[in-house]
Amino acid sequence: MNLFIYYAKCSTCKKAKSFLDKENISYQERDIKSENPTYEELKSWYEKGIPLKKMFNTSGMIYKEMNLKDKLSSMSVEEQLKLLSSDGMLVKRPIFITSNQILFGFKEEEYRKLV
Questions:
Q1: Whole-angstrom distance, CA of residue 14 vs CA of residue 96
Q2: Strand positions, DSSP E, the chain
Q3: Residue 99 burial (10 A CB sphere; 0-12, 13-18, 19+)
Q4: CA-based nearest residue to 100, from 89, 90, 114, 87
């Protein structure tokens, strides 16, 4: 089963959800605010080739408040994964997970390849 991890107030998440529904792509929903990706999930995605930088919500308030743009380069992989797993608002969204792909954010052309 496909998994769609989103934040209800996020306009990009709404666009992605609308696309999936329009294309009749089935998925299970999970709210990133109430059920943040775990350290283990994030680590497994990283090990599948998703760059850590791609997992961070670089336009989010917490990212900016913590000045992570300047701090991430000096943090270890483990420190970054622990930080990501500490707050769903640090994680780029939506996340769409299929049996063979993990997409962060919403680019219609990437989602279209799934159809």
A1: 13
A2: 3-6, 28-31, 95-97, 102-104
A3: exposed
A4: 114
- Whole-number Å distance between alpha carbons of 103 and 95: 6
From first to last of the 115 residues of the chain, give the pLDDT tens digit.
999 999 999 999 999 999 999 999 999 999 999 999 999 999 999 999 999 999 999 999 999 999 999 999 999 999 999 999 999 999 999 999 999 999 999 999 999 998 7
105: left (phi over 0), alpha (psi -120 to 50) or beta: left
Omega of the bond leading into 94 within 30 degrees of 0 (cis): yes
Complete edge-to-edge strand list for the sheet that includes strand 3-6: 28-31, 3-6, 95-97, 102-104
Distance CA 41, CA 67 (A): 24
Residue whose pair of structure tokens reads 């059920």 in the numeric block: 35
